[in-house]
Amino acid sequence: MDFKNIIGHERVIEMLKNAIKNNHIFHCYLFTGEESIGKKLVALAFAKTLLCKGNGLEPCNSCNSCLKFDHFNHPDLELIEPEKDLIPKQRIDDLIKSMAIAPLESERRIIIIDECDKMGIEAQNELLKTLEEPPLYVNIILITSNVNTLIPTILSRSQVIKFYPVESEKIVRLLMDRYDKAFEEASFIADFTKGCVGKSIELSQSADFFNMREN
Known about the structure:
It is a single chain. Helices cover about 45% and strands about 10% of the residues. It contains 10 helices and 5 strands. It has helices at about 10-20, 40-50, 65-70, 90-100, 120-130, 150-155, 170-180, 185-195, 195-205, 205-215; strands spanning about 30, 75-80, 110-115, 140-145, 160. Strands 2-3-4-1-5 form a 5-stranded parallel beta sheet, covered by helices on one side. β3 (about 110-115), α5 (about 120-130) and β4 form a beta-alpha-beta unit. α4 runs parallel beside α5 (about 120-130) and α7 packs across α8 (about 185-195). It starts with 9 loop residues before the first helix and ends with a helix.
């Protein structure tokens, strides 16, 4: 996974690359936008680039760091996702304690919290303490499709990056080239999902969806 594999979001990717180039990486990013639009893919590509031994604007995909990242066993990457539609406070408590451990193989520790809106208020307040006094080697990427459920102080301490729907023609080309869809089918899916790449790919593989369409 790297930036080259991502459909759309050129503005966001360019912004992140400029941050790397200028060595101006924020302690906490908040990626917000519609569900399945590509936020997590960009977060992973960004994290992989930051951990890469090549120190470039793209991951080299050949160093030990990149290889471990691709297998999700990099010791300096932590990906937190909801468990049964919830990120429990204990999970955040454990995360905060682990932040005291310096990076094992890289200059940074990258923490990605997907669907961070699934944290309750208590968990959000615990995370906020870390955002107020962060270890210098930690970078956090929060991902949400429902920014309104986050407490305002988390927003104020994060670099908020808004993701917008991907242009339909790019999704159509993706579905035709990689998933062997005819132009008519690809166009219908792209219009139906309104620029959400992940949903478009999912529906392109769903026989039930096309059966419902015919009905």
